[in-house]
Amino acid sequence: MAIPRPRPSGWPPSWWTWALQGRVAVMTLTRKMMEEAGAHETDTEEFVDYPRFIRGVEMGVLIRETGQNTTKVSIRSNNWVNAARLAARFGGGGHARAAGFTCRGAAGTALTLFLKEARRFLDGTRD
Question: Which CATH number covers residue 87?
């Protein structure tokens, strides 16, 4: 597999979005990136865990295009954001510290929708 597996700081900056005052670290993988790397979905499953270990990050998120017009969003939280409640806002679910959902659209669309709702959770207007 061609996708590198070093610490998060070793991945290309284009894969990352830092949002909400650095409290959210998002890794985005498009179908094109996966194809170019010769990677499969199972090769990326653990990637969502890495951003959580970055100082100041409350949520690590992996946004991965899984099909034509379909994107999977995986969420991991460290301390106080309930990932399952956040995912439920998009019809998903999981556990307090690990959850996810699938949505229609490309990775960029999923990122925009997710960050809008994540802001509410981080600012305390959602629990």
Answer: 3.10.310.30
How many domains are there within the chain? 1
Q: Is the pLDDT of residue 66 over 80?
A: yes
For 13, 102, 119, the CA distances from 27, given in Å and listed in that order, are: 9, 16, 17
Q: Which long-range contacts (CB under 8 A, 24 or more apart) does 84-93 make?
A: 85/121, 85/126, 85/127, 86/117, 86/118, 86/121, 86/126, 89/117, 89/126, 90/114, 90/117
Whole-prediction pTM:
0.84
- Phi, psi angle pair for 37, to nearest 5°: -85, -10
Q: Strands across the sheet with 16-19, in order?
A: 16-19, 24-29, 59-67, 70-77, 98-104, 93-94
Q: Can you tell me which residue has the tokens 């990637």?
A: 47
Residue 17: give the domain boundaries: 13-122
Helix (H), strand (E) at residue 83: helix 83-88
